[in-house]
């Protein structure tokens, strides 16, 4: 499944219009949302990433580690005025992608939903997802399990609401 992850990273990078690339933080959030969307719609993640909840949201170092192995991905680290480091990824050259239509549709769904979001708003979106709000910080996130819980919660909420709207028996 690592090849799927690399193909997803390459696809996302090929869609970027910013010449400076995409930060690893933003890329991680987008891939998390892709896995979350997939978990909701088909009951499993697209990638085999082990997601963890930390103070900055979902995290896995595998995305950066696997990107470092790719010859066509350029990784640049900069330091801002406050001394904070930020890592960006860009494509040196595109590569042939091996993704099926369903995966591409899921990626495009997430890219469309996040394309106009600044970092703060993207973080708010990610932090509002069920796996994040329902998990302890620094815990492992089982997105497929969380998707089942979320669906069950929605069903029970719908049943409760429909019972509220029923006329009382007299």
UniProtKB/TrEMBL annotation:
Tell me the superkingdom of the source: Bacteria
Instruction: Give the matching Pfam families.
Output: SocA_Panacea
Report domain Antitoxin SocA-like Panacea positions: 27-127
The entry's protein name is Panacea domain-containing protein
InterPro entries under this entry? SocA_Panacea
């Amino acid at each position: 499944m690592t090849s799927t992850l690399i193909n997803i990273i390459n696809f996302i990078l090929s869609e970027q219009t910013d010449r400076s690339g995409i930060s690893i933080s933003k890329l991680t959030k987008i891939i998390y949302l892709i896995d979350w969307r997939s978990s909701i719609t088909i009951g499993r993640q697209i990638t085999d990433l082990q997601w963890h909840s930390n103070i900055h949201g979902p995290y896995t170092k595998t995305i950066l580690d696997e990107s470092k192995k790719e010859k066509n991905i350029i990784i640049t680290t900069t330091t801002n005025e406050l001394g904070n480091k930020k890592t960006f990824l860009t494509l040196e050259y595109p590569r042939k992608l091996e993704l099926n239509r369903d995966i591409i549709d899921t990626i495009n769904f997430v890219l469309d939903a996040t394309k106009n979001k600044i970092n703060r708003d993207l973080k708010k979106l990610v932090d509002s997802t069920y796996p994040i709000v329902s998990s302890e910080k620094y815990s492992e996130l089982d997105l497929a399990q969380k998707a089942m819980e979320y669906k069950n919660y929605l069903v029970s909420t719908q049943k409760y609401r429909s019972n509220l709207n029923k006329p009382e028996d007299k």
